[in-house]
Each structure stands twice: as structure tokens, then as C-alpha cells.
Amino acid sequence: MNRQVLNRSVILKSMLTLVFAAIAIGMVLPFIWMLSGSFKNSASLFEYPIRWIPKEWNFDNYKRVWSGSVPFSVFYINSIKITFLQVLGSIVTSALAGFAFAKLRFKFKEGIFLIYICTMIIPHQVLFVPRFILFDQMNLVNTHAAIILPGMFTVLGTFLMRQFFLTLPNELLEASKVDGAGYWRMFWQLSLPLTKPALVTLLILTFTWHWNEYENPLILLRSRDLFTIPIGLSSFSDENGTDYPRIMAASVSALAPLIAIVAICQRWFVEGIANTGLKG
């Protein structure tokens, strides 16, 4: 009987593995086709049946992307600058706030945290007009500061870091307090080094969000030399019309940093998700 149950379990797991493998392949295929198409010319792009490996490798698409009339390299530098500062600010503010909400004792802590979390239900689009008016009065419209400053604070990041700090034993902090450690030392030297998985998770989430952010730069940036990659890619697509191989080359260039970040940090990302209550 036990052997039959074991066999059924193995068969079920095998079937689930095949199903999820098929789903994964179906999700990856469009990206593989885009990568393959970026090395083709317009005539060979829509060949049927699909030729996954180009017959002739055409690197001219990438040359035109990076050295053409549309300054794609400028968009890249702008996105790297803006995203780096936003991610750095998010990590710093979220770690400090998460530690305070998790380990410090102060009046109305739970109420303040509840109100803070409730701001997540406010639709992002509702803030466009008041944010534009505020930055216009501060003379920050059409500057990168208008994009960077709001992105340095994230409610989700604070929640994630708080959940991770809650998993740290209070006895550890109490012992350091007895030894004369202050709150800053408990945070910087004791608690923060233990939160590497949560920090990496926050890094990936914020990097992905800000690298792909489209609406705020579209509203707040006007000069072409200030555009980020999503806005620049849209402008690039408009100018190149139906030159799909070149558009695919630009899309692959925009996607490369995201793939690199996830590939490098995947192990800590999975661990961070498992330890912060974001399992779904």
C-alpha cells in the first residue's frame, strides 16, 4: 500500500514538473525570439517556420541603437543614475524604518505603522497632479531630482524590512544592550549584517520597479537628454517605425541589466521572500 502511495506521489510530482516546465518554456520563448530577432534583418525576422538561430548574424542593429540619431547611451546613463540613487535611498530609509518599527519601543508605534501601511491602498495615479504641482513650485520639474526624491521612500520596503527584523531574537539585542551597545550600534553592527537576504530582495524589487518606471518620467521630464530608458525606448520605437529588429535590439539592451541583477542575486532573493512573510 505504501509503495502504491509512493508511486502515485512520484507520478504526481513528475506531472507537475512537466506542467510547470511547459509554462516556463512558454514564458521564456518570447524573450528568446526577441533576442534572436535582434540579430536578424527585417526580411528574415518573420520567416515561417521560425528560425531561432539566425542564418546570418546582423550586429548592425546594435550599432545603430547605440550610435544612431536617438541617444540611447544617454538614456542608459540617466536610468543608471536615477535607479542607483533611488535604490540606495530605498534601502537606507526602509532598513532604518523597519528596524524602528520592529525593535524599538515608542508611543503609538502600531498605530503609526498601520497608517503608514494603509497608504499602499492609495492609487499611484492619484498622486500625479499634486506631485507635479509640488515639484513645479519647487522648480524641480524637468530635473532628475523630481524622479529620484519620491523613489527613495517605499512602504513595501519598510514592511519587508520590518518583517525580517522581527525574525531576529530580542535576546540578541538585549545582550548587546547589556554590553553597552546603543541603538545605532545594535542596528548597524548587529542587526543589519543579518538581513542580507531581505536587503537583496528589496534591491531587486526596487531596481525592477524604478528601472521600468514610465509614468513619472513621462510627466515630469521634458528634455530629451534627461529621458530614461522606458521613455527613450518609446521615442526610439516612434522614430524607427516598423524596423522591428532594431527595436528588438534596443529592448534587449534595456532588459540586460534586469536579467543580470536577478541572475546574480537569485539565491538571496528566494531566501529573503521565504523569511519576510511575502510567500504567496
UniProtKB/TrEMBL annotation:
Which keywords describe this protein according to UniProt?
Answer: Cell membrane, Membrane, Sugar transport, Transmembrane, Transmembrane helix, Transport
Q: Where in the cell is it found?
A: Cell membrane
Question: Gene3D superfamilies attached here?
Answer: MetI-like (1.10.3720.10)
Domain ABC transmembrane type-1: residue ranges: 76-265
Q: Which domain of life, per UniProt?
A: Bacteria
For this protein, the parts annotated as crossing the membrane are 12-35, 75-101, 113-133, 145-165, 186-211, 247-270
Query: Is Cell membrane tagged as a keyword?
Result: yes
| Major localisation | membrane
Q: Which InterPro entries match?
A: MetI-like (IPR000515), MetI-like_sf (IPR035906)
Per the record, membrane topology reads: Multi-pass membrane protein
The UniProt family comment states: Belongs to the binding-protein-dependent transport system permease family.
- Designated name of the protein: Multiple sugar transport system permease protein
Where does this protein come from, organism-wise? Paenibacillus qinlingensis
The root-end lineage is: Bacteria, Bacillati, Bacillota, Bacilli, Bacillales
